[in-house]
Each structure stands twice: as structure tokens, then as C-alpha cells.
Design a protein that fits this description.
Protein name: Phage tail protein
Organism: Gluconobacter albidus
Radius of gyration: 18 Å
Order of helices and strands: HEEHHEHHH
Strand order of the largest sheet: 1-2-3
Strand content: 5-15%
Distance between the termini: 13 Å
Number of helices: 6
Structural class: mainly alpha
Helix content: 40-55%
Largest sheet: 3 strands, antiparallel
């Protein structure tokens, strides 16, 4: 039987942030991020609404209509990257750029907002989803199964 505690989060970590290891085995780095706070969700909705309005302004008469929850995938990816960069990401550690220098948090946020790094956006979203969960407890429970 499932336990309610499995689905709860440490709310202080969700709002203040936590360092989460991300990336494929042998090629990992750390993102310090908040979880999915109300500010993140509101920002994401506002960005999607703004994008839908922009797309609809460029449509010809009689063409389809875009809604915030039905954007083209690449447009939605940019909205998600901007929202996660603006509201959640607090730091990055262990990620080097093409020049072998550490990527700064400002550069990392810019990458997320650009829409040109969908893999990094996915990792940042995954990290935010893991904030505040008790991974040690979950690993113990999984080992017991």
C-alpha cells in the first residue's frame, strides 16, 4: 500500500532550493534549484499566454487559434526554459563550457532561456521536480522491494 509521505515534499527546500545531481552516469553536474513553486507556475502560465497571443497576432484570418496549453512544442520548450531559469535555478556546479571554464549561473540561465539547449532544460525541470523529496528513504524502500 502507498504511503502519503511518499508524495510529500520538504516545503522549505522547495522554496529555498536544494542542490540536485543531474545528467547521465559519468557525465553529471549539479543544479541548485527551487522546486515548482507558485511563482514558477504563474510565470510559466504568463509566458505561455504571451506566446499564444504573439502567435495569434501573426495568424491569417480563418487560421487556427493557439491557446496557452496548446502551443507548438518548440515554443512551449522556450516558455519552460524561461520559467525554470527565472524562478527556480539558483546555481550550477560542475558544468564546463566549450572553453573548459565553469559555466556561471547567469550563463546557464541564459542557455535555458534561449531554447537552444533542450537537454539542459529537461535536466533543470527534472531537478526541480526532485527538490524536497527524500531520495535516501526512496532508495532504501526500492532496495527492500
Amino acid at each position: 500500500m502507498a504511503k502519503l509521505s511518499t508524495f510529500s515534499r520538504d516545503l522549505s527546500k522547495v522554496s529555498e532550493g536544494e542542490e540536485i545531481e543531474v545528467g547521465p552516469e559519468g557525465n553529471t553536474f549539479f543544479i541548485t534549484t527551487r522546486g515548482f513553486t507558485p511563482a514558477y507556475r504563474d510565470t510559466l502560465y504568463a509566458l505561455r499566454l504571451e506566446s499564444a497571443r504573439e502567435l495569434n497576432r501573426s495568424q491569417r484570418a480563418g487560421a487556427g487559434f493557439y491557446a496557452p496549453d496548446a502551443l507548438p512544442p518548440t515554443t512551449d520548450d522556450v516558455c519552460q526554459g524561461k520559467a525554470i531559469a527565472r524562478q527556480c535555478v539558483l546555481g550550477v556546479r560542475g558544468l564546463d563550457g566549450a572553453d573548459d571554464q565553469p559555466v556561471s549561473v547567469d550563463d546557464f540561465r541564459s542557455m535555458l532561456e534561449s531554447g537552444n539547449y533542450p537537454a539542459l532544460t529537461t535536466l533543470a525541470i527534472m531537478a526541480a521536480g526532485r527538490v524536497g523529496s527524500d531520495r535516501a528513504e526512496q532508495a532504501k524502500a526500492a532496495a527492500g522491494n
